[in-house]
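Lab channel / #folding
Pinned by the channel admin:
"Please post every new chain as: sequence first, then the structure tokens as a reply. Keep commentary short and put observations after the output so the thread stays searchable."

First post following the new format, from NK:
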Amino acid sequence: MKKLLYLSACFFISLSGFSQINSTTGATPAYISNPVIPAFTVYKAPDSTSFTKENLHKRKPTLLMIFSPDCGHCQHETTVLIENLNHFKNTEILMFTWLPYSDMMSFYKNYKIADHPQITMAWDFKDFFLPYYHVQSYPTLVAYNKYGKFVKAFSGDIKMEEVWKALGNK
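Reply from TO:
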């Protein structure tokens, strides 16, 4: 009888341990539950000036790209994005990284981002975008329409044609 009582107690104690899961795991991501471009502050290349949501052009679709300068997929997608900028003529493109500013600047210079005025590259010094968009792989692209409403998120190997179509571009 003592063994049964002991086993029952162990069972209930272990059961309560398994019930202590993170309740936010299944929660709806913020960018879905609040489907507008969030307020943010970043430092843009090349001069480290502050850039916020208020600096975005009004009535233009916005494409956010969360990337890592040392990620092969990110490097490839940046090349493909630049090759297809004609499909994003009316789109504001913001590229963000959380890695050190010096890494971002190397990427900025290597891909000649300064030659493409519709692209703003910035350092996410507060690490805001990774958790906000639940980034699981790089790059992650997030499309917003001209009214600032969420359209679609893309990650990993991305077909640029799907991105420009989601934004209503041809």
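NK: The chain has one domain: 33-166.
TO: also worth noting, The beta strands are 41-44, 49-52, 62-66, 92-97, 119-123, 140-144, 150-155.
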